[in-house]
């Protein structure tokens, strides 16, 4: 899986590093990037290199909110050509749908989903990397929050911003960036807002400009071939906690028949079962490490009908029962 992101994902990385007294050159060299690559916002760089760079920078500076600090100054224009299309959508819901439709032009690792829950909507966003990344997650959520604020202006008032990781010791930056309730140790990463806000008219929308921008975006040459493996991986990430990570649901979400999905995965040298197992193993570590989740709840989030089935699978996968693994990794059994 060779996921790519625009170099614009790391816009202001050098600036933030400098402000925190960090010489970025050794870290760039370690992840195989350079200042020249970052200078062109449309340049495509390996997603894993970008994710690892953020984590290394946070460790080197001792600043656990490095990614969020980058997000604090992001503008809608940082989305590149897609920004014009986003800004002229009739509602925030349509702007988010456009972001989801064209996220391959922005960041191959982003998985997004709108989940209606009565009067509320959950905007789920996951960075589908090979390992959980607090920095990449907070950067992505910060950028998403600021994009929504740019579309709605002073009317943007979400109910909460949710993070699957634990809260930092100092919440001052989070409170400044998000200015709403913060939920840490949550079952998902994303933003909870009122459905009415998502469907309120955007006074700045210009349908003619939106049509022009869409024609322009669709005329762009493909920057990366479609990857059914990556698309399936992202769909499983979003659907597994809600119990819908089946071949049927994922195929439907991708607009494919089950037979076509299975054939394309077979041609890519993998299977749905293998991919489900890989994502389940990654999410298992996230959930078990979080002491706020009972192990019964973890088994439900991972799609197991009984805790005993989950315990057997986890022990086979990680060589320890989940209780012992949690205790060894700093949680309470």
TrEMBL record:
Pfam families: Arabinose_bd, HTH_18. SMART domains: HTH_ARAC. The keyword Ribonucleoprotein does not apply. It comes from the Bacteria. Keywords: DNA-binding, Transcription, Transcription regulation. Residues 230-328 form the HTH araC/xylS-type domain. This is AraC family transcriptional regulator. It comes from Hydrogenophaga atypica. The lineage of its organism: Bacteria, Pseudomonadati, Pseudomonadota, Betaproteobacteria, Burkholderiales.
């Amino acid at each position: 899986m060779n996921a790519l992101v625009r170099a614009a994902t790391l816009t202001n990385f050098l600036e933030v590093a400098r402000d925190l007294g960090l010489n970025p050159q050794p870290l760039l060299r370690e992840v195989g990037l350079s200042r020249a690559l970052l200078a062109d916002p449309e340049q495509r760089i390996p997603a894993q290199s970008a994710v690892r760079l953020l984590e290394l920078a946070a460790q080197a500076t001792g600043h656990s909110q490095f990614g969020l600090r980058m997000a604090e100054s992001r503008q809608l224009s940082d989305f590149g050509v897609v920004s014009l299309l986003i800004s002229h959508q009739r509602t925030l819901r349509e702007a988010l749908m456009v972001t989801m439709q064209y996220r391959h032009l922005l960041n191959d690792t982003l998985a997004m989903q709108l989940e209606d829950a009565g009067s509320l909507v959950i905007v789920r966003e996951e960075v589908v990397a090979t390992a959980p990344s607090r920095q990449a997650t907070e950067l992505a959520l910060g950028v998403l929050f600021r994009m929504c604020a740019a579309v709605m202006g002073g009317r943007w008032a979400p109910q909460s911003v949710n993070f699957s990781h634990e809260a930092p010791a100092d919440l001052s930056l989070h409170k400044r960036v998000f200015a709403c309730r913060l939920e840490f140790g949550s079952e998902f990463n994303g933003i909870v807002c009122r459905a009415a806000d998502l469907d309120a008219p955007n006074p700045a929308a210009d349908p003619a400009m939106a049509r022009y921008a869409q024609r322009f975006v669709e005329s762009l040459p493909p920057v990366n071939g479609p990857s059914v493996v990556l698309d399936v991986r992202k769909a499983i990430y979003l659907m597994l906690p809600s119990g819908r990570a089946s071949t049927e649901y994922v195929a439907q979400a991708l607009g494919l028949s089950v037979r076509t999905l299975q054939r394309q995965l077979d041609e890519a040298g993998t299977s749905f079962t293998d991919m489900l197992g890989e994502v389940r193993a990654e999410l298992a570590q996230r959930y078990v490490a979080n002491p706020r989740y009972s192990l019964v709840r973890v088994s439900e989030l991972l799609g197991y009908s009984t805790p005993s089935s989950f315990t057997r699978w986890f022990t086979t996968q990680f060589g320890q029962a989940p209780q012992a693994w949690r205790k060894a990794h700093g949680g309470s059994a």
